[in-house]
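User: Can you write out an input/output pair for a complex, sequences first and structure second?

Assistant: Here is one pair. Inputs:
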Amino acid sequence: MDRWEWKPATVGEALQAAVSFFTQSEIPSPRLEAEVLLAYGLGVSRAGLLAMLRDQLTDAQQARLGELIQRRLTGCPLQYITGRQEFWGLDFAVTPAVLIPRPETELLVETALALLGRQDRTAWIADVGVGSGAIAVAMARERPRLQVLATDLSEAALAVARQNAKRHGVAGQIRFARGDLLDPAIDAAIRLKAVLSNPPYIPSGHIPSLQREVAGFEPKLALDGGEDGLDLYRRLAFKAGLVLEPGGFVALEIGYNQGEAVSSLFAAQGFRDIGLIRDGQGHDRVVTAVWPGGKER
Ligand SMILES: C[S@@+](CC[C@H](N)C(=O)[O-])C[C@H]1O[C@@H](n2cnc3c(N)ncnc32)[C@H](O)[C@@H]1O
């Protein structure tokens, strides 16, 4: 955006200009994004923004809004600018150290809750690759008797997840551990009722062709699933059997075309009752599998 063109006198003019820049840059939902961004920049709600369209902007406000719009035009996702994303009806803090939680992942939470049932006894589950904490926090909120072991390789992601657990009053139910996949559970000899994960599952070679918001801004560690996208499932299929209780289960988010491959990996390790759950678009999105018995460590 050329700074010379940025001279809106009122909030309404700024909004109109932002919508037009975003439309030209083919940002999806340009009006919605412009409203959210300007409301954030002015420290008001969206309704508040719409009530002040005729207000004059101060020079400082004009400059701030210009900077925010330019940042969005570089491809930086709105959520990294505003520092928030809603998931499971809760407001999550997000930073560029974590994947922005996606609505599809709510299907994983729904599936895990259905498999757990009421869960009135205390039990441990794991959220492998906790990122912002979306899955761990939602599960802890829904099932107060659960203890969640939340692992991640990224210390910066764990810090964001801790902040979100505190924000939503479930810090006491979640143990955060830096480590590879389920190693923290293996090391602490924790037996798990369930292993949940939305692991990185994009084949390495596909990452550059993703939307620029994803490829250029979201952490590679949260996206890269190795050459065929299945690296983490392959290793999880082995490790989950070491820590699950008999009758415990895994519930994993997958890429739309990975259902068969991930099911086979878990079947090959001795998991049973493998299930594939489709999302609202009709794509395979969650794999579930039950661990029948113990395995020598
Ligand atoms: C796709 S993101 C999911 C984040 C969050 N659970 C969600 O659903 O929004 C995957 C996460 O796994 C973490 N991760 C990648 N490799 C890992 C590994 N080997 N062990 C543990 N965590 C890992 C990444 O740092 C990232 O936070």
